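[SOLVED] Need 3D model of a two-part complex

Original post:
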Amino acid sequence: MKWFIIFFSLINLSVCIYEDQIGKFDWRQTYVGRIKFAQFDTVSTAKKIIVATEENVLAALHLKTGEVVWRHVFENASPGNIHLLHVGEKITTVTGDNPMNQSPTLSATGVLMWEWTLMLQDDSRADFSEWWVQNGMLVHMLPVFNSHLEVTMYNVMSGSNRGATSKLPAIWNNEGQVICICVLTAPYYTCVSGEFGSQILVSMDVTANAIQMISKPLSNIIEGAVGNLRALDGNSVIPGFIVDDKKIVLIKENDFNVLNVKVEDTLASASIADGARGPLVLQIWTNYAKGYQLIAHTLSGQLIPEIHSPDSFLDIPEPELLAVTCARDQLACRLLINAADDAVHLVQQGGVTLWSREESLANIKSVEFVDLPVSDADAALESEFDQKEGSVWWSFVRRLQSQYQQLSAAVERLRSGEVLDRGSASLHRDYFNLHRIMVLVTEAGKIFGMDNLSGSLVWRLYLPTLSGARTILLRRAARHPHTAMITIVGTHTDTGNGYIVTLDPITGRMVPEHTVTLDVGIMQCMTLQETGDDQLRALIVLDEDEAVQVYPPSAASLVHNVHMYVADQDTGRVRGYAIRYNGREAVAERTWSMSLGGSGPARIVAMSSRSRLERVRSPGRALADRSVLYKYSNPNMLLFVVEKPDPTHKEVVTAVVVDAVSGAVVGASSHRRARALPLAVHADNCFAYLYRSDKHRRVEIATMELYEGKDRWSPAGEPFSSSASWRTPVVERQAYILPALPSAAAFTITERSLTDRHVLLGLSSGGVVEVPWSLVEARRGAAGEESVLPYLPELPLTADRVLSYNLTLHRLAALHTAPAGLESTSLMLATGLDLFYTRVAPSRTFDLLKDDFDYYLITIVLAALVLATYGTKYLASRKTLKMAWK
Amino acid sequence: MEHTLNCKTEKYCPRGSISLRSIRTGTAVIEQVNFNKKHISELKDLADLDGFYTIRTLVTTSDSKEVEFLSSVKAKYFLGSGLSDVINAWVLPNGEVMAVTFQVTNTSNGNVLEATDAEYEINSKFYVNHVDQAPVPDTATYIQKMEREREAKEKGDLKDNRPFYAKYWMYIVPILIFVMISGAANPEPASQPSR
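Solution:
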């Protein structure tokens, strides 16, 4: 019995991939998001930095490496908002928006110790409430402008209130119109009060038993001040603030103390830290010419030359001090710096960056897999076959030449002792084209080039004015001798107009001649199928004035038979445009329009078009009676999932398949009492979308497949034309229950689409599951069919189908797939708070030898066979000789 | 229903009207203008440019709300089909019109109209398509099927209460035969007579 238990527990271990395969084809990177609060954990023995982020994550970062030691992901959006982070012996946070605030306390190892709920009565001014911890009490302060301050104190351990809320009279506190004039530097609350010109700086210790006010005319501090107050950053040890970005004012011994330290830059971030020679005033800023700068003074205004930074060793846009710690015995400080590009750096005063984290990768907007360029030797081979002219002799000579080149290159490599490096270090295409550069565009406007095999960043580029971007590949690296080019189409943050950036995805260098700032907003954009002489596909942009712009403009003559659609997400109206070249310029003509929600209000929740990389493998599928069911292979189809309020059924979800060229509705179906999820996928003739059924309180996946029927509409080989077809296909539909809540969906894509197609679902529980299309296909359960599975209403999500095995990927936002050079394999990147990359082989790796393929055995067997052949030959000849002698 | 042909100043001018009697049955009355020579020549000009013949439909609902729909066909194909088109109206379950689309039928015959006659009739077919209810995960029949299978199994168990020999005779008989044959092939040597 005991042995049986051990035996079965062994079996349980080996579901999913084998244990030794973990990390072989996949990697995961954990991120926390843009950091809001940070504090050095100096109490516990393991040195950490505790951070709270705008993604509602509380995490501990390793002081030496910057890796995430532990991480708690709170709820999304407002219930998980972190308002306070206090690190003492324990970590105290206040999360959630009013009127429900949670105050969990965690131990230094990240274990939740207790949690209690605060209920605030008045949530109308809750935006202004402030929290801090003082002497084991959690203080909540709520300013009521022009009247008083409400201060409530709670015991951090128990959550019990110290009695009633105290109301401190403070008619001087007011809400600034444009500038911030009230600031909390715990425990002091400071405001600028009075008319312009005769302003008084008023401050008050909010937690003191006796009310003590400090006041001083603002003109004593700075002449002609506007009165803009900014608190010191980085958990300053002495409460203080900066007036008008010019003077640092500290509150010491109940008095304002104006420091004799010049604020070096209007955007400089300053903090006071305890150092070896008493408190230090640290300032950091970025100089346009010199880069990141650090300067330190004593409180008396004396410059400390030991603490500085060398010129231009780091480029940190708009640095902000998050936390500072200085050594007690020597002049050495460590600064945790937040930048405008969401990166966080731990910098030592000498100018050494201990580590940097690119936290903008927690918010990826768009992903593109780019092929690497072929190596020089392969390129030479390619160019050899490219040449069409010349006789047989010439090509023979060329062959010999290139062979000589290869040989000399190999000899050279051997001589220099360099090993043939096919690893991630060389950015050249590998044999199966599995090695790519992933171009990641983040919400912060930072663009990364990432190696897909190792997950390391190859290049990074920060464009502060870029937002809402989407990537378009203009030229693949395959087009030797040109370099690849990728275009990022986004909006300019300042104007909201179009902003087109073109880069080389391998090196990350901008291509200035293809980088344009438009003076109108962009409605839709696409690339042409035809390429110009330079192998560049032109970018067509439809702007908000319904005018067409073609980049580069010389490619305008290539525009013909181009159709675009524009969908308005909030009204459900979809318009189609035909774009033509009329001899002078490309013009757009509105050809069709429809309103997917009828006359009433409607919202397009999800939309899916066919992937650019998608191919159709076969025109139909064989049935049991030896006939063929032909697929409706229209490459121009779009799937819209529309949610619409309905008087009788609450919400109605309608899925509409539209031909983008002619505007014809190809198929449609509706679901009553359902809420749409923003997930829809489309490939070939298959459509799938997800919705939540309010009636049954569950998530369902609906699939559609379009078929022409048993007869072909057009002869084989004839290209499909949307404008010439008028017949509507047969729509097969089916729905299944999904026993999970998905947050992302994608189809696997392979090079020739010969392999099975799987639906990848990212679940809110943190797993990526692959569901074979045969499990969700619309014809499942068709009567008398042997090739389809019998109908099962609930989809089984078995553990061996989880691609992310036991990893939990928090807040999965999207799945991106790309075909590899191997037909069996599809590359997948899951984005969200974490990045997870793996390979998917929907039909197993039929074109690859197994990992554990025994090369030695087969070599030994072959060698033994050869030996045996020669041995028996020798023996046989001896035997015949002997026979002859007899 | 308006189109872009032979309009003097405005972009669109009336082509005809469709009045739908009943959404359920889809019966409708179509009234359309006939095309004259001017229409045809303009259509031909469009076809030469590979242009679009655009039709604008204004749908008036019962509560007199107007919704505009656009649809286009290639003028070339419209001429080629002999001015015959298919009008598809898609109606949502609550009776609102989602789309009105025009498509050209049968483009293959290819006989381009010669502007000889004075007037041409437009050949339109009108269909009302309903956005129908999608299937829901069919748990009921699945449970029924499971139940039937279970019942079948139970029935099978009940039926099979034949006696032991009746059930397993097919295994017993070959063994018996084998034993008999082997017994016949090498008969036991006769026991030695006792002395």
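Edit: The mean pLDDT of chain B is 77.
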